[in-house]
Amino acid sequence: MKANKWSGGVLALLLWAVLALPVARAQQPTQLVAEMQAKFPGEKAVYLDYRTDLTLEAKGDSVLVLARHHQDMLHLDAQSVAYVNDKVYNSHFSRLQKLDARTMVPSGNSYKAVKVTDYKEKFELQSGIFYDDTRSTTWTFPAVAPGARTVTDYTVRHPDPRFLNPFYFGSYVPVRHAELTVTAPRNIKISHRLFHTEGLNISFSKQEKGNTITYRWTADNLPSPPRDSDGPEAAYYLPHLVYFVEEVPSADGQARKVLAGVPELYNLYSGFVSKLDPQESPALRRVVDSLVVGAKTEQDRVQRVYYWVQDNIRYVAFENGMGGFIPRDAGAVYAKRYGDCKDMANLTREMLRMAGVKSYLTWIGTRDLPYRYSELATPGVDNHMITTYEASPGKYVFLDATNKYMPFGMPSAFIQGKEALMAIDGKNCKVVDVPVMSQDRSPVSDVSALTLDDKGGLRGKGSLQLAGYPKVMQSYALDGLDQTEETKYIKSLLERGNNKFFVDKYRVSHLDTRDQPLTIDYEYRLQDYVQKLDDEIYVNLNLERPYAHDRIDADKRRLPRVNEYATQNHSRTELEIPAGYDVEYLPPVAEMNDPVFGFKVKYERQGNKIVQDKQVYINYLMLQPKQFHQWNAVVDKLNAAYRETVILKRKKA
Predict the structure, then answer these.
(1) Contacts for 451 with CB less than 8 Å, ≥ 6 apart
(2) What is the C-alpha to C-alpha distance for residues 625 and 6, in angstroms, rounded to an integer?
């Protein structure tokens, strides 16, 4: 049945493959390698062809999609063995139909095919995902050496046209020729959005034949992408095209909109939540009633519910077909005490309803995705679900209970600056902006008192306090550690001066107290740090030097740099002046203020103490290449401040 249904598409694929063969054979293997090495110098491999051909067919109210993929990689040097392993994916939304992988080994003026015979299939689990129905088929190409080509042809059936994958023109190696074709009946309207294709010569053509239209996009000679650390996800910079079905014919012959804009996307999402069981759970009602007793304000009720879900429902991610989009009933999530993001969002909303508070289920994309609803209204725009509470007209509180340490009033760090799609009712929605938290919402404060010992070392006693996102991050890091692991982690967190740093005592407070900073009180020793010369003592009070080694190679780095959140770090260090000594030199004030990065370091004498007050702030989520030189200027001046030393001199008798 399936073979007959797609016989036209299979014949087209075979014809296309036959027509493509003379192109590959037109050059001898050695000539092809020489040409690609000259065109892409220093590269280990190149995709000669990187193609996807989609065929859409209307069947009643449904649209069937068949995607044929062809990838032909030429290996240019011995290090390309890193690319001998490959895989394709199979899931509810992309069902693998057929797969043929082979190595084309040079043989005289042509090639000899060596087929892959050993394929392995397994479930593909991602970090943080408890269950995912995605399976991968993996294999290793045989006989790979410089001059060989590794070729893969595979066919995927997409049962739902609303969940199609983007086409990336670029890849992890250069691409000689990239091509996407979409063939559809005239009564199926196809739309698309291009991203990061500025400066590229992408050709587009549309061919009409009989009752079908073929849309074709091609690009040639694409370089390999940047490989900078701390860069954004590939969707932020790789050239790609998102295609989607905008209209399909309905049973009455009229056009039915599928993904024409935000209203159509919300219609899809609204359908996911429309079948939730409206009958409330008596057990859950009792919990909510107990929570709101004594609550003086509506915000108190919201906060109590939010914190209860954080504390009592374990986040467990499920990606199982449509189950990855449809929330489970609040009563079931409460009974099981676990759920994924949409389950926890729906539970939070239902509990707030029971508490007499209006809130909204909300879809949102994390910062891994660069898209906005206004530019791409497809399921590819978001990947997360939360609850939104409108504290006052136009003032929204974004409640993400999957993050157990997130304080009320702050969105999760990974949704800052994103657009959120709020479900107002069954037919109406609203897109609102999630704010970016300012640096003063995530302060780190370290206050310590130092004394000199008689062996050239320091003894210190201090208190480190973290709030906002730093507290969230460190709370997760400390959560569940045994005593040995915790001691090691605290030492690494506090470490300063040199490698002869020892923590003698510490105490962690307010790990689970949401309205207080996470506090670590500590005592430590630092050996062989102080310099003595004749009657002078030299002490550098910059025991911690954040960003000292953070210069960016602005001539080589091509990608922006991503930061989780803005923060400000304040440290106050008090050094007791030893008996018989006086202050010979205090460094001058050093400061530099930039919109994304700055600092101020000042010293003063207060009685028998020298006090260093140091502030360093970071104020960006994505640092653009045009800002690198200014960043480096701040780093240079900051390092100059770090080199400054306090000088104490023995008093004359």
Answers:
(1) 458, 459, 460, 575, 576, 578
(2) 48
Write down which residue in 256, 288, 309 finishes a domain: 256
Helix, strand, coil percentages, rounded to 5, for the chain: 25, 40, 35
* Strand pairing category for 240-249 and 189-195: antiparallel
Whether 612 and 630 share a structural domain: yes
CA distance 357 to 294: 16
Residues 406, 409, 413, 417: what is their CA dihedral angle, to the nearest 10 degrees? Answer: 160
Percent of the chain with pLDDT over 90: 83
The domain tally of the chain equals 3
The residue assigned the tokens 């189950």 is: 323
Are residues 357 and 245 part of one domain?
A: no
**Would you tell me how many other CB atoms lie within 10 Å of the CB of residue 636?**
11
Domain interval for residue 167: 29-256
Cα 527 from Cα 456, distance rounded (Å): 7
Residues of the chain scoring pLDDT < 70: 1-26, 123-133, 318-323
Give the number of C-alpha atoms closer than 13 A to the C-alpha of residue 487, restricted to the C-beta side: 8
Helix, strand or coil, per DSSP, at residue 8: helix
Residue 309 sits in the same domain as residue 200: no
